[in-house]
Every structure is written in C-alpha cells, then in structure tokens.
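Thread: "does anyone have the structure for this chain?"

Original post by V.I.:
We have the sequence but no experimental structure in hand. Need at least a predicted one for the grant figures.
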Amino acid sequence: MSLTQIAPDLWGTPHWPVEDYANTRAYLLTRPQGNVLIYGLGFQRDEADEDLLDEIAALGGVQVQILSHGDEASHSLEAVRQRFGSRLACSAVEVDQIDNYAEGLSVDLAWEPDCADDALDGLEIMATPGHTRGSISVRYESPHGQTYLFTGDTIVPKDDGGWVVNVAEQQGGTAADLERSLLALRTQFFDLLASSAYVGETSTASPSREEWQAIIDRRIERLRVWDAARA
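Reply from O.Q.:
Generated one for you, tokens below.
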C-alpha cells in the first residue's frame, strides 16, 4: 500500500525527495462530490507509478488536481488526467509556467479570487504569494469534524519542530508578499496542516491556535532579518 490514511477522508502519497534535506508528497481528499488531489505526484510514468494510480482509483479517482505553485509540475500531471479524466487547477498567475512544463500539458482551471467552479465547491482557496508570485493555499472543513490547511511551500514543517519559509525570487516571490501571506495565514485556524515540501519525514502538523500564531510571528521576524541583510 503506497497511500497512507491520515484522516477518514484524507490520504497521503509516498514521500519523494526534492533536495538532500527535503521531501514532497501529495494528498488525496475524498469527497462525495468528487475527489481532489492536492499538489503534484512528482514522478515519471513507470510501473510503480501505475500501482499508486490504482490505489487512487480504488478510492474513487480524481475529479480535480490542484497545484499550489509551479514547482509541483511534472509529467505525472498528464498521467493523472489520462487515467481519471480529471481537471488540472492552479493560480491564474502561474498557468504559463505549468503549461510550458511539457508539450501538450495545459491547465483546465485557472483560479482567481472571484473564481466559481463546481469542482472547487467546499474548498476555500487563498492567494498566498511570496514563495512564488502565484502561490495558493487551500482550506477545507471536513464533514468528519476536522479542518485541513494545505499551505504548499508557503510555510513548511521540520522534523525538529521548527518551520521554514523561503522566497523563490527566480519565480517571482518577494519577501513583502510572503509577509502579507503569512499574516493572512496567521488568522486561519485548523486541526491539521499539510504542506507540499517539508524538511525531514513529517509532512503534517497540528499546532494549537496560540502555537500557530507564535510560529507565524517568528517566521515573519526571521524573514525581515533576512530581507534587511540583503538591502
């Protein structure tokens, strides 16, 4: 079994390395109105990948796949669409980057703040630029009683209990945008945070409301120090 059940309606994929110190994974959110695959699968097409897609199929497949930012693009996007007839969604700001990743790849749903689409019903999508120019986060109130917050790479957990934020300037990220996004996320309260990348082996976290606010405050303080040192 490649998928790991995290909650009654939430499953995590295997971990894929992206750096010597960091990993990434995706999450399958199962819903009566259609399942949502959040983030990229990060693989090429081979036999092992088909096994993972078989497991996803057994849970109802995928209606829509949401990328939090362009770094999550891979050849797996087309594999998912071909297998499930799913739609690919991302911020309208990052459509070009994802469309240009591979020949024939195209985004089906370009999210903007006023976007209304049945595939996104029940999902609160928030613009959280700063890591990249078009990063988004997703909040979902599960009917099973928990609230999930998917932050992409805007803020990610570490195994030692710390947290990391990163400005990808080559992809249009800025410290000013990231600080505003962190302040917006500071007001979001949840039971489970699930990031795209993470440092170590732990991709989820469940800080209390007070802990979360303190985490954000510390990250903003460190971000300001980093930005000032570059001036």
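V.I.: this helps a lot. The mean pLDDT is 92.
O.Q.: and The longest strand covers residues 136-141.
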